[in-house]
Amino acid sequence: MANDNGLRRSYADSCAELQRLGWLEPGAIPPIPNRLPQADDDDPSGVSFFRTQVEGDLSNLTLPRTFFGRSLIRDASFQNTDLSESNLCWCDFVQVDFSRACLRSSDLRGSTFKSVRFVNCDLRNADLRRATFSKCDFAGADLAGAKLGRGLAWAFRLDAHQRASIDWQTFEGDCPAGG
Q1: Which of 154, 153, 158 is nearest to 169 (CA)?
Q2: What residues have CB less than 8 Å from 75, skipping those under 6 apart?
Q3: Cβ distance 37 to 87 under 8 Å?
Q4: Closest CA relative to residue 57, chosen from 23, 32, 26
Q5: What is the number of domains present in the chain?
Q6: Which positions of the chain have pLDDT values less than 50?
């Protein structure tokens, strides 16, 4: 459920909304991890979507350092949601809307994105290597410092400023954990 004014809910209110929707167990609000979560973390904390199907409206939430792993995210909206420093590796994103979302410093490696909207999305310093993109819209997205393999340069319809701001990588780098 999106707020009419477009403001993001607080982390506590966002977790309460996830509890209401059945994505989080009722009870205490999970703490925000101290760093970007990894698939091989010994003591996982925070919000996590693992081996599940996510759909629906998750707009205007504040969920930094969220873990998405081996999940199908389909017909979902994360418009204006803060997912900064999140792990979104090894997932399939199909018809997802990240318009005006914050994915700053997130790890998206190894995931597949099909018909995904990144319109005006903050992707600064995000790692997009080893991901595949099909029919995605990056209009107005901030890609400053985002890591992307040179082999994918042809796959994106980006303006000159976006292309110049990307941290183009010669090598795709290591596969993310959890693969």
Answers
A1: 153
A2: 55, 56, 94, 95, 96
A3: yes
A4: 23
A5: 1
A6: 1-4
* CATH code assigned at 143: 2.160.20.80
**Rounded to an integer, what distance in angstroms lies between the CA atom of residue 89 and that of residue 178?**
8
Report the largest interatomic distance among the alpha carbons of the chain, rounded to a whole angstrom. Answer: 48
Give tens-digit pLDDT for 20-68: 999 999 999 999 999 999 988 877 789 999 999 999 999 999 999 999 9
Task: Determine, yes or no, domain membership for 3.
Answer: no
Q: Integer distance in angstroms from the first to the last C-alpha of the chain? A: 32
The reply to whether 39 falls in a domain is no
What are residue 152's phi and psi, to 5 degrees? -100, 5
Q: How many CA atoms lie within 13 A of 13 on its CB side?
A: 12
- Pairing state between β 48-50 and 67-69: parallel
**Distance set, CA 165 to CA 19, 21, 109, 110, 161 (Å):** 38, 38, 19, 22, 6
Is-contact 14 30, C-beta < 8 A?
no
Secondary structure (DSSP) of 47-65:
-EEESSEEEEE-TT-B-TT
Range of the domain at 24: 11-34+48-169
Measured distance CA(122)–CA(137) in Å, rounded: 13
